[in-house]
Amino acid sequence: MLRYVTTNAGKVREAREYLDDGSVAQLDFDYAEIQAPTLDPIAAHGAREAYRHADEPVLVDDAGLFVDDLDGFPGPYSSYVEETLGIERVGELARDAGGGDDAPARAAFRCVLAYCDGDPFDTSPDPVDRGDRAAAAAADDGGDADDLPVKLFEGVVRGRIVDPRGDGGFGYDPIFEHDGTTLAEMSAAEKNAISHRGRALAKFAEWYATR
Ligand code: IMP
Prior knowledge:
Bound molecules: inosinic acid
CATH class: Alpha Beta
Low-confidence stretches: none
CATH architecture: Alpha-Beta Complex
Helix content: 25-40%
CATH topology: Maf protein
Number of domains: 1
Strand content: 15-25%
């Protein structure tokens, strides 16, 4: 059984569209999020921690909104910024930094899926995080190297930041427009077909089917 590690049941519903329904279950485990400027090491660290906790194959999903005119802000801090500033304030900041209403700020949603089952992985186009950063940190502390391999799958969708529209989805969906429609105005299937998470899940599902 694959454990999808998240406190957000909506993410598991999206994952079931790509994976055999009976083969994935939610693991409601709140792993400690490290601070890093990109999503990869955060997701990899979470996958190692979740695997040690569950002792079963785990998939961790880390996502964020990266606004071009804000140099990628809020990026890996999207969750904290949603809780503190709120999505409308992020929309205002993006509009102020961008070209105003006539040229809405461009942005990307990124999702990194990190898979760990304790085994090593063959070489493939998708990166494998072999714990080099964790090993370096542990060595600095005089601790043991942490070399649990983690396989990473990334999905990206590009769009524009607009005033909030729609009441579907979650998080930043109402202010993220793709091809004229916000993610919150799309059905779950429409969002899945173009979303960062859908794209990462499609890559993961193709690889996982051969495992
Ligand atoms: P996390 O990956 O659950 O930590 O999400 C980071 C932040 O991005 C949170 O504020 C989420 O609400 C937001 N987020 C993650 N995925 C999505 C999405 O598909 N749509 C809108 N917001 C998202």
